[in-house]
Every structure is written in C-alpha cells, then in structure tokens.
Amino acid sequence: MSAEVNGRKQPQQERARRRRQQILDTSIEILQQDGLEKLNTASISEKLGISVGSLYRYFPNKQAILYTLAEQWLGANRASLEEIARWPLEAMEPKEFIERFLQKMADVYRAQRGLTLLLQTIMEVPELRELDEEHDRFVVQLLARMLKRLHVGSSRTERIRLSELLLNQGHFGLTLLVTLGPRLGSRTLEDLQAMQIALLQKHRQDNRT
C-alpha cells in the first residue's frame, strides 16, 4: 500500500476511536450528498466542526479515509462469509444454504450506508480496486471450499468457475436490491435465491451421477 493511502494506527482510547468513526461516517454523508469530487479533508472538517489539523491526527489525507472505508466494507463482507463457512454445510441442501446465505449477505449490503457511491469510488480509485480484487480472490476460494462441502461441482476447477458466477451474480443482485424499495427489494432477493438454488441443484445432481 502506498504512503498516500496509509492511515494512522487505530487509536486505543474510546474517545479517539469514536472520533475516528465520526470522520468515516461524515465522509460517507458527503459522498452521498455531494459526490467524490466534493469529499476532501476541508469539507469533512467543516461538517464535523473540527480543524483540519485535528483530522490529520487520524487520517493523513482523503485517500487514507477512502481506503479505510473500503477496508471496513470488505471486512464486514469477509466476517459474514467466514461465519457462513462455519455452518454445518455437509448436512444442508442447496435450497436451505442459498436462502440463508443470500439473506445474511443482503443484511450486510443493506447495513452499508452510501453503498452504491462507495462501490463506484472503489472502482475509480486504483488502490481501492486492487483491494477489492484481492477480496474477490479470497471470496472465490472460500466459496469453492463451501461448494465442496455441499457436494457441488465435479472438480476444483468447476467449483472455482461456479464460485465466480455466484460471486458476480450475487454482488450485482444484492447491489440492485439495496437501491429498490422494500417490496421490489424482497422480490429481487427471491429471484436471486431461485436462480442460485437452481444452479447449485443442477451441479449437485451432476456431481452425484
């Protein structure tokens, strides 16, 4: 990671940790209201009512703030996926797994404020895109191991291919879901579940023949 996106160490005192999170929350608010071009240390400091010098105690620049926001978002994803990997997958049918899996991930996507703009920012900033690509590689490998425990896929190569499909289809569907109202969002989740259940059932049957 370059010096431009290298943030300060996580503060130890509770008050300092709260201030650091306030800076991140305010950055999301500015992203939502004004877009990436208006996000800078001056606008964040003004909105928070602190000096730029005080902000620099926590983050050296805008890039470090964006990097930390991306890390938090991807970290929440990773924590949920690692929890799912601890489920008793060997005893689960594809329908139960996909319904629970996508519901849990939908909760993660819905909980992230300003998700659409944050994802757009990740794609526009090379350091963040690199972080996202590293995360995707981790997810594909983890999903492939889960598919093996679910008895899906006839080979590791096939499970990797299916995992990439699940990742990309799921990410698109869940991102769409959070932009819709409750009724359409619920229908979108149901449709996404139906597609992924059918995919796993097809390849589980293939694997058992």
From TrEMBL:
<dbReference type="InterPro" id="IPR041669">
    <property type="entry name" value="TetR_C_15"/>
</dbReference>
<dbReference type="Pfam" id="PF17918">
    <property type="entry name" value="TetR_C_15"/>
</dbReference>
<dbReference type="InterPro" id="IPR001647">
    <property type="entry name" value="HTH_TetR"/>
</dbReference>
<feature type="domain" description="HTH tetR-type">
    <location>
        <begin position="17"/>
        <end position="77"/>
    </location>
</feature>
<dbReference type="GO" id="GO:0003700">
    <property type="term" value="F:DNA-binding transcription factor activity"/>
</dbReference>
<feature type="DNA-binding region" description="H-T-H motif">
    <location>
        <begin position="40"/>
        <end position="59"/>
    </location>
</feature>
<dbReference type="InterPro" id="IPR009057">
    <property type="entry name" value="Homeodomain-like_sf"/>
</dbReference>
<dbReference type="Pfam" id="PF00440">
    <property type="entry name" value="TetR_N"/>
</dbReference>
<dbReference type="GO" id="GO:0000976">
    <property type="term" value="F:transcription cis-regulatory region binding"/>
</dbReference>
<dbReference type="InterPro" id="IPR050109">
    <property type="entry name" value="HTH-type_TetR-like_transc_reg"/>
</dbReference>
<protein>
    <submittedName>
        <fullName>Transcriptional regulator, TetR family</fullName>
    </submittedName>
</protein>
<keyword id="KW-0238">DNA-binding</keyword>
